[in-house]
């Protein structure tokens, strides 16, 4: 273990964002954070935010660089104890959540991350995603057909949410009768990824972590007795040349991560994307007219323009310098994906929706070793979902301005009322 870090207290000269610029607990900010991001980018490259004890990083170049910088990590426990890192250990009663989350690929660093990603990649192959394409297309078409037959409704609950849950459940081999359990568990667990979650949020996450883990433990036991062609069976069978295998906890955490990360991002990209299209009717009309040629670049542009994951947090394992500001070891940085994806230093006319944009190096899927493993699947789902509705509901329109979910980190509307 290394010696204790320098405390993460900013120098008096550190640029500090005003509350008006960045207030992730204010509903108006959550509804539209982009003007505030422009102010942040003008204020500096690294800004200390006391309310969450984080350094905000708003520029595309810095976010992209730091995602690849091994002096930062999603965890610090591979190098330090909580005490050595100047942080408090989580309460013992939260242990089920932290065991589940801490063994997932997203929150690990090398060497565990390297080993687990290699093993998962053996099971979660491009061929696996390619094999799912007919299923994804069928599910998207069925959801769109039912939605159109009903004359519309809540696009979030009836189209955006069911598709990724059904796809992940199909991949894992979750019986259809059990699939209604997955969404509430996912929703409760990801509440802990928001800034300063409260105790009630933690209790719900712990309960969901226990229930979801127990369910998957039973499913894994069934598959061990009779391997199938589902992803859980593939994870059980995956091993490398040194005959390393995933532990049961690593398999459970991987399955939960696939649902949580893939589901939440895809739901909010779908709902945010449709809301963006409704607010840009000329672009929507062009997409409807040129769907076959524009759909691929349109999906990328919708992910850039209104990013579903606004912030990605990393721990500073060794001192770093950003724009002349030293951020000491023991600090936490908040990489602002939403701001980076609207940075005029990287994107021409970043606040303009351009569904034909081809130079689109958005950071929605991250970068570096934590680049989203499920990105090809997410793109497949989004293209199928948007394509089905564009084709079946050429007159789809918004009937009411949406209320937003209170969460800022994972951001999207509570519902999206539309009619065909």
Account of the protein in words:
This protein is α+β, with helices and mostly antiparallel strands and 420 residues long. The protein has a single domain, classed as Cytochrome p450 (Orthogonal Bundle), CATH 1.10.630.10. The strands form three sheets. It has a five-stranded mixed beta sheet, with helices on both faces. The chain has a three-stranded antiparallel beta sheet with strand order 4-10-9. Strands 6-7 form a two-stranded antiparallel ribbon. Helix 4 crosses helix 12. The chain is globular, with a radius of gyration of 21 Å. The chain starts with 26 loop residues before the first helix and ends with a strand.
Q: What would a concise description of this structure say?
A:
The chain has 420 residues and is an alpha+beta fold. It has one domain (27-419): Orthogonal Bundle (Cytochrome p450).
Strand order of the largest sheet: 1-2-8-5-3
Question: Can you tell me the CATH architecture?
Answer: Orthogonal Bundle
- Per the CATH scheme, the topology name is Cytochrome p450
CATH superfamily: Cytochrome P450
The global form is: globular
Number of strands: 10
Structural class comes to: alpha+beta
Number of helices: 16
Highest CATH level, the class: Mainly Alpha
Return residue spans where pLDDT drops below 50 for at least 5 consecutive residues.
1-12
Strand content: 5-15%
Strand and helix order: HHEEHEHHHEHHHHHHHHEEEEHHEE
Q: How many whole angstroms does the radius of gyration measure?
A: 21 Å
Number of domains: 1
